[in-house]
Amino acid sequence: MSAIGELSVVESAAMMSWSSTTSSSSSSSLLLPVYLLSVFLDADTSQFHTDSQLKPEVETLHYSMSEHAHNGSLVADLMTDARLRQLLPPDVVHQLYFRFLSSLPVGAPMSIDRKSGMVHTAGDIDREAVKQCRHVEPCRLPVDVAIGPASYFRIIRVSVEIVDVNDNAPYFRQSTAVVLVRESASTGSSYALPVALDADGPRYGIQRYELTSSTSKLALLVESRETDSRLVPRLTVTDVLDREMEAEYQLKLTVYDGGGVSASVDITVVVLDSNDHSPQFDSQRYEVDVLESVPVGSVIVQVQVCQSALLIHHSHVQKILSIIYPSLARCISNSFHCFTFGLFIMSLSRHGGGINN
User: Fold this and answer.
1) pLDDT digit string, tens, across residues 268-318
2) pLDDT in tens, 48-85
3) Does residue 50 lie within any of the structural domains?
4) Does residue 90 sit within a domain?
5) Which of 309, 301, 289, 299 is nearest to 355 (CA)?
6) Domain boundary residue, one of 128, 163, 198
7) Which of 180, 174, 176, 177 lies closest to 197 in space, CA to CA?
8) Considering only CA atoms, which of 263, 259, 62 is closest in space to residue 165?
9) How many other C-beta atoms lie within 10 A of the C-beta of residue 349?
């Protein structure tokens, strides 16, 4: 007798027992649950759909497929791989139907044939569009399937690995970048460099950086970020910088992905000045004879202040002149490394036979 037939016999027995006890005393009706239990225990359940040959869950079935596979590509044959034809009689297999237990993630469209249990791609499988696959290797998606009808309900655990392909090239957000480094920077100091991007997974994502440079005073330092293991390039100072000797450096930062595809960005390192040089007058002492009749506004002497640094700190020069020549006006003209000051008479007065100011 089939499993469904056996179940009908048990149900009929239960109904007959219920009819006979309705005319009996109330105490006899209390024996109904025990009677039903004995009926189920005495029945031969070797052919029921709860047969141990067909467990409520089978072990996980693993599959793999390449992203961007052709639409309609076969992913899984669940009827065959779960051995349902071997475990169940033909009339039961004919009743089975399949459906996904939950909705599939965005970027991994798949369909399942309700009767055959075959799973196919239903559009473009884009690994980078699947949230669960970003920066993960390998990427395995749970695609669990439920088998109906309810009397034969089972869950097939399915795992589909989306295999990455090198379909994205690395790139920088900008083609050029400027890094400012003060000449007083200590050895070992590091500065941020542009970080390259690549949408591919770890296998074909960013693998290494290279720095092309004409100086040995600057080098590349690559760190691995703790949160997601992404590579982060930094520029490190390996020797003393001197702006007066070299004001800027031209570098090239190149990145390579897992497939050997590269991208680069041009880096200009500008060395900022530090006030490491004192200004120098062109003479240690100035002596000028001035007639008492000289008109106000006449230039009496030119003083030149030079500094080897390219950027002269105006405030320092002004302070020096204000101390040495407190009552003389100053006209300043910048001539690259030097300033020329025209000193002229503001006023004249006699004091004890001499000239003040």
Assistant:
1) 999 998 765 567 777 777 777 778 777 877 777 777 776 654 444 444 455
2) 344 445 555 556 899 999 999 999 999 999 999 999 99
3) no
4) yes
5) 289
6) 163
7) 174
8) 259
9) 9
